[in-house]
Each structure stands twice: as C-alpha cells, then as structure tokens.
C-alpha cells in the first residue's frame, strides 16, 4: 500500500514523500523591492522536509499585487533574493515550486505600490471590503482586460516563470484558485464576457489554458502546475455548477500535460474523484475539512488512492517538521492566526521542531 511517506516521481523529479507545503501568503516581504527576506530563507529552509514546498503567492507583475508586502518575481533583485530561498531548501534536500498569483480584482489602488486600478475578466466589483492602510475599504470596479491586456498578462506570467527557473525553483504553480484572476475568468459571475475569453465553459476556461500553455512552452510542462478550487466562494465567486467548467478545463490541460493539478477541494468529493480519473498527471489534494485545518485524518486519502499527494496549509505553517510529526501521529503546534500575515519572526520562524 502506498502511504504519504513514500517517495513519488513528479514529472521526473524525485520527491522524498507525498506531503506538500501548501502556498501561504505571509506578507513579510518588506521594503520597496518586495523581495523575500533572510527570515524567508530560514522559514522555507526549516520546512524542507516536505516532499514539495509551494511558496506563498508571488506576483508576476506589479499589476498582480493585491496585498501589502507580498513578494514578486519580476525584478533582478527579487530573483537574487529567491535564489537564497531555493538554495536553502535544496541544501536541506527539499524541492520548491513558486506560486504565481495575480490577484485580479481582489486588490485596491491604495494597496498597489503604483496606485494601479485592479484588472479582471469583466468590470464586476466583488462584494465586500478589503483591508488597506486606511482601514477597510469597498472594492473598486476593476478594469476589464482587453485582448492586448490578456496577452500582456500572460506574457508577464511567462517572464515570471522564467525568472523562477533563474532563481533556482524546481517549477511554478499557476494560481487558478481562491477567487483570484484566473478564477475570475473561470466563474460565471465574474466573467460576463461574450468574446472568446468568456461565454461557455471552454471560453471561461481559455485564460487558464492559454496561461498554462504559455508557461509550459517557456519552462516545460514538467515544471508547471495549476491550482484550482472548483466552487470555492472566496473573493465573491459564485460557481453554482462547477463540474462542467472544470471537466472541460482538465480536458484541455491533458493536451498540455502539466506536472500536477493542485485541487483545493471546495465542491463535493465526487468531483475530486472525477477530476482524478481524467487527469493523468500527479493530483495534489488540499482536502476539504470543516472547522479545522487538514491533519493526520487526511493521510488515508493517499492510501485509498484518492490523491497522489496531500497539501497542508495551517499545520505546516505551525509545524516546520510536519512530515515527521504526521508520521509519529503528533504532537502538533497550534497555528497562531494573529501572526499569519505580516509581523516579525514570531509566528514565522519560531515554531519549534520536535527536537526543539
Ligand atoms: C496564512 C495563509 C495564507 C494563505 N495564502 C495562500 C496563497 O498565497 N495561495 C494559495 O493558493 N492559498 C493560500 N492559502 C490557502 C492554503 O494554501 C490552504 O488551501 C488552506 O490553508 C487550507 O488548507 P489547510 O486546511 O491545510 O490549512 C493560505 C492559507 C493560509 C492559512
């Protein structure tokens, strides 16, 4: 029987186990250069016993930044700073992909370092408020990307993916989940387009497909992953009937052959099983859990073949040696929500490993 602690081949890359550190924004890339700091080098290095680390959401361009102090992958300074992170992880025997996150309409001119108005598939503002330096503010109506804007945005992702390889990453994950730009194209309430980038299931999925194709063409399909979250209402997304959209998406992905599909399970398990059947690459599952972070209970999902790998968010944040603790059945440090976003080393690099 395969367990989460067995190695796995990810498109030719041998991973020590099937436990993935899920991407987590930590908003600690202080300074005008928006680069990972020395503390980030320590943070990721501490977590190198993951089979695979996926970094925090990293903007491929200034226009893609929706939160304060998130790192980018669009300058030489950022590439040099990320190189220290990838070196630390590789030296400790780990593997690391960079998550490319363009937040689209989840942003605000006062959060953007250049005062940019957010862009999206259509000029539809999400309901709700965003936290800014001046306190909570209503979201603004985003600018709908025209054909040139779409091409430019894809090109920005390609450039960032090339930068990721230059920085020593083992690959990149395109963020197509959780209500950000790619998800805004996929969902019918945020994509009202009537051109080739909207309309039916294939049209709404086209941005995701073209983006993954362009990144795969640039750095290799074996170095490219995609994260999706069918039915996830984050960011005011409403997908009442996600199945046909995501089945069409996976059909198109099969022609490209990305290394993995990282599925954040928000809809029912039946869709997870269907996507698994139809996707021939590695399936990383961020299992749906209600009222608690994923934990040891989910390990059976590898054993029963539901997924190839499992990603852990909050528990990996709080337990730098999570694979070892999962194997031992605990104990686990408790994640401190107050230090998730921003702050100093507290709640970042000071969670103890079992040995102290
Ligand atoms: C502090 C924090 C930041 C997160 N930032 C991101 C992110 O940048 N990109 C992303 O795809 N998901 C992000 N997530 C979602 C996690 O990747 C994961 O899906 C979520 O925590 C649920 O998994 P869990 O139950 O194991 O914590 C974040 C979660 C947390 C707790």
Walk me through the structure.
The structure is a single chain. This protein has 356 residues and is an alpha/beta fold. The protein has a single domain, classed as Alpha-Beta Barrel (TIM Barrel). It has 10 helices and 14 strands. The strands form 4 sheets. An 8-stranded parallel β-barrel has the order 3-4-5-10-11-12-13-14. A two-stranded antiparallel sheet has the order 1-2. Helix 1 runs parallel beside helix 2, helix 3 packs parallel to helix 5 and helix 6 packs parallel to helix 7. The radius of gyration is 19 Å and the shape is globular. The two termini are 33 Å apart. 50% of the residues are buried. Bound molecules: flavin mononucleotide (FMN). The site of flavin mononucleotide (FMN) has 22 residues, from strand 4 and helix 9.
Instruction: Sketch the major β-sheet.
Output: 8 strands, parallel, barrel
What is the top-level CATH class?
Alpha Beta
Structural class: alpha/beta
How many beta strands in the DSSP annotation? 14
Bound small molecules, which ones?
flavin mononucleotide
Q: What is the CATH homology-level superfamily?
A: Aldolase class I
Whole-number average pLDDT? 97
Q: Helix share of residues? A: 25-40%
Q: Per DSSP, what share of the residues sits in E-state strands of 2 or more residues? A: 15-25%
Gyration radius from CA atoms, angstroms: 19 Å
CATH topology: TIM Barrel
Give the neighbour order of strands across the main sheet.
3-4-5-10-11-12-13-14
Domain module count? 1
Distance between the termini: 33 Å
> What gross morphology would you assign?
globular
Low-pLDDT segments, ≥5 res: none
Number of helices: 10
Order of helices and strands: EEEHEHEEEEEHEHHEHEHEHEHH
């Amino acid at each position: 029987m395969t367990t989460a602690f067995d190695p796995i081949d990810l498109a030719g890359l041998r991973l020590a186990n099937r436990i993935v550190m899920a991407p987590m924004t930590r908003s600690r890339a202080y300074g005008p250069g928006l680069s990972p700091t020395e503390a980030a080098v320590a943070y990721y290095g501490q977590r190198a016993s993951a089979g695979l680390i996926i970094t925090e959401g990293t903007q491929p361009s200034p226009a893609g930044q929706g939160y304060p102090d998130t790192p980018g992958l669009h300058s030489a300074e950022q590439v040099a700073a990320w190189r220290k992170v990838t070196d630390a992880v590789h030296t400790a025997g780990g593997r690391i992909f960079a998550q490319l996150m363009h937040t689209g309409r989840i942003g605000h001119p006062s959060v953007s370092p250049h005062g940019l108005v957010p862009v999206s598939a259509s000029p539809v503002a999400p309901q709700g408020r965003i936290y800014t330096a001046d306190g909570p503010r209503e979201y603004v109506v985003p600018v709908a990307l025209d054909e040139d804007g779409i091409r430019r945005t894809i090109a920005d992702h390609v450039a960032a993916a090339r930068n990721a390889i230059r920085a020593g990453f083992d690959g990149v994950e395109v963020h197509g989940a959780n209500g950000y730009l790619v998800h805004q194209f996929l969902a019918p309430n945020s994509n009202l387009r009537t051109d080739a980038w909207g309309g039916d299931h294939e049209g709404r999925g086209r941005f995701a497909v073209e983006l993954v194709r362009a990144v795969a063409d640039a750095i290799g399909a074996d170095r490219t992953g995609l994260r999706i979250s069918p039915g996830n209402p984050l960011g005011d997304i409403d997908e009442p009937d996600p199945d046909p959209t995501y089945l069409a998406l996976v059909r198109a992905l099969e022609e490209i052959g990305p290394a993995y599909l990282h599925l954040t399970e928000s809809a029912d398990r039946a869709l997870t099983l269907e996507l698994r059947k139809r996707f021939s690459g590695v399936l990383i599952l961020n299992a749906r859990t209600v009222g608690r972070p994923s934990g040891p209970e989910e390990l059976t999902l590898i054993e029963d073949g539901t997924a190839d790998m499992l990603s852990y968010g909050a528990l990996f944040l709080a337990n730098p040696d999570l694979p070892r603790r999962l194997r031992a059945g605990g104990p686990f440090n408790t994640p401190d929500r107050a230090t998730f976003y921003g702050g100093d080393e507290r709640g970042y690099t000071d969670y103890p490993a079992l040995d102290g």
